[in-house]
């Protein structure tokens, strides 16, 4: 297919050629170079945190070939997603889609998008059999689409048709991250969320690193400078991103280490919610976690520093209060004073009713 739409800001031909080279390099790296996750040269693209509860159970059901061809850096699927419409960006061999298909149930929907034919062939090969025989569904609730994450409308992802977008070590591979965020904002329903694990850097990286085939393929070359990412997300219209986990990345290869100099990389999971300005909570709310999250733990972790314990009243402020009270995760919390406003007093439920 054609290369993805490039950033309007990059008017010079050299940048466009560099971008096209990066796109083709990524396709080749994930399509042909890597034979399995054991071929990776850094710890960037392999998982850091172990999954729990329903996610861990669902992982055991995923076909072996799908697991062995998967290169991700976390487990961005939360439990408690029954009935949701989930989109997986850069789904690769489809591991996270297979897990999500089990968690959303037969009425939910999972769509995986990727630009690599070889990876999609693995994802599609097992889908029907898995849904019918392993999950016992009457229909296959997941599909895989070839396309670019910078152009979701071009592959039929409609406006406000998705509740949760997940991606695992993929946004860094995009040459046009602004377009990715704009497309996500368009596709997400009010109260929806983009929850993703990715690679971030503590500085802006030089051009020779950003176009280095192996460094890009290993998710380091395109790593986002964290402050720039936070600014871009809020400029697009999202609620200020909420950080959930962070772990340092090691570069095992001495030659690559020399190229990178002092740059420090981390694998970080962020939650980015879509909540209209007039629904955002500026002050605080008193909330109680109701225990319905299905992860086998006694608390719900909203962010790296906020875990709400079951049955315990807690005051939350600002963006955390907004996430808890105005999005798809509101169903896990009782909010003091909400009953008086009628049950559907949050932005996500209100949008569903329309």
Descriptive account of the structure:
The structure is a single chain. The protein is of the alpha/beta class. It has helices spanning 13-33, 53-59, 64-68, 95-104, 117-125, 127-134, 177-187, 207-210, 213-217, 226-236, 254-260, 318-326, 347-353; strands at residues 85-89, 109-114, 142-146, 162-168, 188-201, 224-225, 242-248, 265-273, 284-289, 299-303, 306-309, 313-317, 333-335. The strands form 3 sheets. Strands 1, 2, 3, 4, 5, 6, 7 and 8 form an 8-stranded mixed beta sheet that branches. It has a 3-stranded antiparallel beta sheet with strand order 12-9-13. A two-stranded antiparallel sheet has the order 10-11. The two termini are 37 Å apart. 46% of the residues are buried.
Discrete helix count:
13
Distance between the termini: 37 Å
Strand content: 15-25%
- pLDDT < 50 stretches: 1-14
Oligomer: single chain
Rg, Cα atoms, Å: 20 Å
Structural class, by secondary structure, is alpha/beta
* Element-by-element helix/strand order: HHHEHEHHEEHEHHEHEHEEEEEHEH
Amount of helix: 25-40%
Shape: globular
- Largest sheet geometry: 8 strands, mixed
Name the average pLDDT.
85
- Tally of extended strands? 13
Task: Summarize this structure briefly.
The chain is an alpha/beta fold. It contains 13 helices and 13 strands. The longest helix has 21 residues, at 13-33.
List keywords for this structure.
354 residues, alpha/beta, globular, disordered N terminus
